[in-house]
Specification:
With 126 residues, this protein is of the alpha+beta class. The chain has 3 helices and 6 strands, in the order E-H-E-E-H-E-H-E-E. The protein has one domain: 2-Layer Sandwich (60s Ribosomal Protein L30, Chain: A). Helices cover 26% and strands 29% of the residues.
């Protein structure tokens, strides 16, 4: 079985030792993504802006793996405050459209309190 690792160059990939995504066994596993503006390194305070940026990072990883949001079969949302999940729903509906994956939302602490949402996905590989 071949394994392909994809890096986005995010600061924690090198610090912690993980890949943004791994393509293996017919799946694309995308690591949890937080809402960081890759051009500036800024983290907006607003959960919906962080959600938008996290989805952008995920979309880039999926694209590099040769798939799209339409191929996602599982998504996990992690938020420190469950009340902030609902404002993200329109963005999530737009991202997944007519191909909604199985989903779980977990209320938990994230690596840094400035992060309001983290999203990870698993997709079928091409």
């Amino acid at each position: 079985m071949s394994i392909r690792r994809i890096s986005s160059g995010g600061e924690f990939e090198a610090k912690v030792g993980y890949s943004r995504a791994v393509v293996a066994g017919g799946f694309v596993h995308v690591s949890g993504c937080v809402g960081v503006d890759r051009a500036t390194g800024d983290v907006p305070a607003d959960v919906t802006q962080q959600c938008r940026l996290a989805l952008e990072i995920i979309g880039n990883a999926l694209s590099e793996a040769g798939v799209s949001f339409a191929d996602v079969i599982r998504v996990t949302y992690m938020l420190p405050d469950a009340a902030e999940f609902e404002p993200c729903w329109p963005l999530l509906k737009d991202a997944f459209g007519a191909n909604p994956p199985a989903a779980t939302m977990i209320e938990c602490g994230l690596i840094d309190p400035k992060y309001r949402i983290e999203i990870e996905v698993t997709a079928l590989a091409g």
